[in-house]
Amino acid sequence: MTDHSQVDPKTNLVLRIHFFWRILFALLAVAGAVYIWVGGVETALWQKILISVALVLASIFSAVGVVQISRRNHSGRMISLVLDYLAFVVCAVLMLNTGEVFIGIDAFGETFPKGIPYLGITVVGYFLSIMDEYLPQKKQTSENSLKVVGRWVMLAGFAIFLLQVDAINGIIYFLGKLAQPLGIVSVIGAIFFGVSIWSMMRDNVSQALHAKTDHEQVINGWLFLSPNLLGFLIFFAGPLILSFYFSFTDSDAFNTPNWIGFDNYAKILNVRFAWLSSPDQFAREVVDIKVYDEVGRFLIGDGGILFAAADKFFWLALRNTLVFVLFAVPLSVIPALVLSNILNSKLPGMKFYRAIYFMPSIAAVVGISLVWQWLYNATVGYINYFITVGIEFWNNLFNLAVVDPKIQWVSDEKTALLSIIIIAAWQTMGFNTVLFLAGLQNIPGELYEAATVDGAGAWDKFWSITLPMLAPTTFYVVSTTTIQAMQVFEQVFILMNPPEGPNNSTITLVLYLYRSGFQNFQQGYASAIAWVLFIVIFGITLVQFQRQRQSSIYES
Which residue in 330, 344, 293 sits closest to 315, CA to CA? Predict the structure, then answer.
């Protein structure tokens, strides 16, 4: 370790401790990775791989920290803080899990209503303690007495609250669980890493490692963002990586997953096209029906082409999803564009209408679906009622004989998907309208004034100014709406019974993913479906991005 005489002895001692601690940390991390594979730890293969990779990376970074601390470089401090902070989080989570805190929260939720009245006593005590602000200044004795009484009332109310919710026994139970070997290790680890972080954050240590003001700002920024980043890693990135691994296994949530390679993807993408000599020719005559199921037929003249797949439901779901996107996106984007231009005018009551159109976007999907389920009712629903009234009116007016179709919206395979499209477009249109309104506010008014001077009409202004200037907003709206449409699930699941609809007319990719993973417990296969869906969405978004890049007026 380099000697720096200008650093005080205490700071030198702290740096030397961290120097040797980083060496010990690296060795312990490597030893932990080896123990997982050699020591016979009973866990799944993916868990061994994940933990081992994390430990090896921690060992490498800790070794780098050793070198940087010896050179008195601020990066050594940064590495130490990151590693110790992550280790502290792991120990804290392990401590909470060992103490069964997460289970205790559920128990606390059940007993909490019993203590609510006594929290009221605490509130009363608080108001008593601040009553001195409203008393005359000369009443010093009253002030002091009210403060004291109020504080004692607050304390008594909170104590009774703890007794009523059985918090004391919960704390005792928690401490008893921590007395176990794993709990003791986690507590000691949390304290040790906490002290290590505190010592590295001291000003004298940061100065000795030549940390600058911007370095401190970076550290503070990362500390501020760390809860969100950890949440992202735990609840998004972690499950994402795990699902990618499961997509190559036969995981069923009950047994140890077995590696099967690309078998799941092979089944999804295994399709067959066969020529039909006649439109009515049986599928078994042209394909092996033990492997393939008929998905659809494309008639050409006196023959046609049979489309069969090893997983027919995936391709039906893909077809329905793409049809949904093809109609739902334009129906939620084009009307939103028109409405935004109308609502952007200075006519009276426009703010009210903006709120009205936005309300479906913030309403609960479950409630909306149930309301539309009643509206779609073939017997008492308002939609069919207005259709009937309209047909009767035109028949009487023009002496026609148009037959009322009595549309079976959700029970007819021809209209089931259309009913879902209408709901989704209606719900999304308001939010898209608000986005377009925001885009319209950024268009300079001088452009419209110049166009007016040149004699341009409203239609010319719309095509020559509004649409080109709204290109970035339109790209964002279309992209987000498309991604949302590709993941349609709630409306289908709630509205249709069964969710797949009549003759699988409303089965979508996300619904099929849900059915495979959570009903049939084919989690490996469901993970493969999820990644195929991700690739499809990514591909569509990439195409949209490329088109926007080529046509954008802002491109240099």
Answer: 293
* Percent helix, strand and coil across the chain, each to the nearest 5: 75, 5, 25
Cβ neighbors of 435 (< 8 A, separation 6 or more) are 336, 473, 476, 477
Q: Which residues of the chain have pLDDT under 50?
A: 1-5, 138, 140, 553-556
Are 341 and 302 in a shared domain?
Answer: no
The rounded distance, in Å, linking the Cα atoms of 491 and 499 is 9
| Residue range 505-541, pLDDT digits in tens | 999 999 999 999 988 889 999 999 999 999 988 888 8
C-alpha of 104 from chain center? 26
Residues 200 and 117 grouped into a single domain: no
- The residue segments making up the domain with residue 350 are 313-551
Helix axis angle, 74-98 relative to 9-38, nearest 10°?
50
CB 432 within 8 A of CB 477: yes
Is 360 a member of any domain? yes
My answer on whether 230 and 372 are in the same domain is no
User: Which runs of consecutive H residues, i.e. helices, occur in 2-139?
Assistant: 9-38, 45-70, 74-98, 101-129
What is the spatial distance between Cα 259 and Cα 57, in angstroms, rounded to a whole number? 25
Looking at 94-138, which runs of residues are DSSP E strands?
none
For 508, the 3-state DSSP assignment is: coil
pLDDT of amino acid 462 = 84
- Give, for 36, the enclosing helix (H) or strand (E): helix 9-38
Q: Give CA–CA dist 226/231, Å, rounded.
A: 8
> What's at 382, amino acid-wise?
Y
**Cβ(524)–Cβ(251) below 8 Å:** yes
- Contact assessment for residue 147 and residue 129, using Cβ atoms and an 8 Å cutoff: yes
Point out the domain boundary residue: 231, 246, 261: 246
First to last CA, the chain: 53
Q: What pLDDT is attached to residue 6? A: 63
What does the alpha-carbon distance between residue 84 and residue 190 come to, in Å, rounded to a whole number? Answer: 9
**CATH number for the domain including 342?**
1.10.3720.10
Report angle CA 46, 49, 50 to the nearest 5 degrees.
Answer: 85
Assess whether 384 and 516 both reside in one domain: yes
pTM of the shown model: 0.71
186 and 171 inside one domain: no
Cβ-based neighbours of 218, under 8 Å, separated by 6 or more? 78
From CA 257, how far away is CA 246, in angstroms rounded? 8
